[in-house]
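Example record

Each entry pairs one chain with its bound ligand, zinc ion.
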Amino acid sequence: MGIIVRVARAIIGRPRPLRCTGCGRDKTAIERLVSGPHVYICERCHADAAERLAETPPSTVLMECSFCGKTGATVPLRADRRHGICGECVALVGQILLEAASR
Ligand SMILES: [Zn+2]
Ligand SMILES: [Zn+2]
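Structure tokens for the complex follow.
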């Protein structure tokens, strides 16, 4: 199991004044926030990133993913375009959100 999953599990469900890196909304306005090493993404921004990945052609740029640190096709986050999420991490965050929702 990857480090991201462990960190994300630790943070989910712990109410703290965190802010989504994707949209800038704070934790009080957001149901669930999944964390990467230095970034946070909410359910809404995750769905948005998944949609942009599914576009033809996908709305990705070549940059470092803020969640796994790999450089590749990454969707920049809307509120802070210095950060982005790659397809692999979008899938991973999707799993985490699904698990969290079924609890
Ligand atoms: Zn967001
Ligand atoms: Zn990634």
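The chain has a mean pLDDT of 87.
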